[in-house]
Amino acid sequence: ILASQGAQWMNLIELNFAANPGTTISRDEKYCRNYTERQISRMIEVLVPRVAQMEKLGLFNRSYVSGFDESPAACENGVRQLFGAIKSKWPSLRTVAVLNWDHMPTDLPVDVWVQIYYLYDASRAEAWLKAGKEQWWYHSIGPGGSKQLNTFIERPLIETRLLFWLAAGNFGVSGWLYYGVDIWRGPPCCARTVIKRINNTAKTDWDPANYVWGPKKPFANGDGYFLYPGPEGPLPSVRLHNICDGLEDVELLRMLPEDKARNLVRQLVRSSTDFTKNPALMESTRRSAAEAVTAMLAG
Fold first, then answer.
1. Distance of alpha carbon 41 from alpha carbon 198, whole angstroms
2. Is the alpha carbon torsion for 100, 106, 108, 109 positive or negative?
3. What contacts 293, CB < 8 A, 6 or more positions away?
4. What pLDDT digit, counting tens, does each position of 140-162 carry?
5. pLDDT tens digits, 252-290
6. Are the C-beta atoms of 72 and 31 separated by less than 8 Å?
7. Which of 82, 178, 184, 262 sits a CA distance of 20 to 30 A from 200?
8. What is the pTM for the complete model shown?
9. Cis peptide before 143 (omega within 30 of 0)
10. Are strands 233-236 and 227-230 parallel, antiparallel or unpaired?
């Protein structure tokens, strides 16, 4: 169903939980332990029928496994154990990990290194790409400071789009991860319900405050959701529309030579803290990019 509706990649498993089913141990213990042969075998046992099903459906080449989300560098041995076992069993099954390490060994059995965008380092990324691997970026509850780009509800909408312009200027970045689009956890008093209009106006009864990270007060509104529960299915937020626009901008800019694209991007965003929130400038820069692509295609 997901593939028929446009999903490009499908996660088969979160490795750590497959190796430790039902655990409630802390992050550091969970992510940094040395895994036993039994735990590694348990993970493989969980994966075998899932891989077989994806192969049967012709979707194996769009499958991946993930694990060690934001784990510290002290967990390198565990990363090598679990992902190494995956690669030994299924060499072509894509492995993905979110790791914000100061040093990334290029022989790590990870195909896609996902890094929070503001920690990007060109030299480390270049070494990773030369090893034949991919780098993606991500954002989530962080960065939380107002001087860095994020997609919170209170932020100017152009920030959502500028995130992808920043990626467009770094041609080695081939994907963007976000952890959740429909985490609708409400305040302690009230369960979330389907969004309803008030008296047939544009106003709704939806409380946009976000209680994902704490039951007592709202925090980081918009974190963890870009959709709303509508009466006939999910409703997209304006922020999600801006993400789609940003992805289209990436496609446009990536049609240009790298130097040309980077020069255009830098008119708007130079780094995670150096950017221009000017919609008119964005529109004129997009037009310049479109004109350059048109001229290039015309020969």
1. 54
2. positive
3. 252, 255, 256
4. 988 988 899 999 999 999 999 99
5. 999 999 999 999 999 999 999 999 999 999 999 999 999
6. yes
7. 184
8. 0.90
9. yes
10. antiparallel
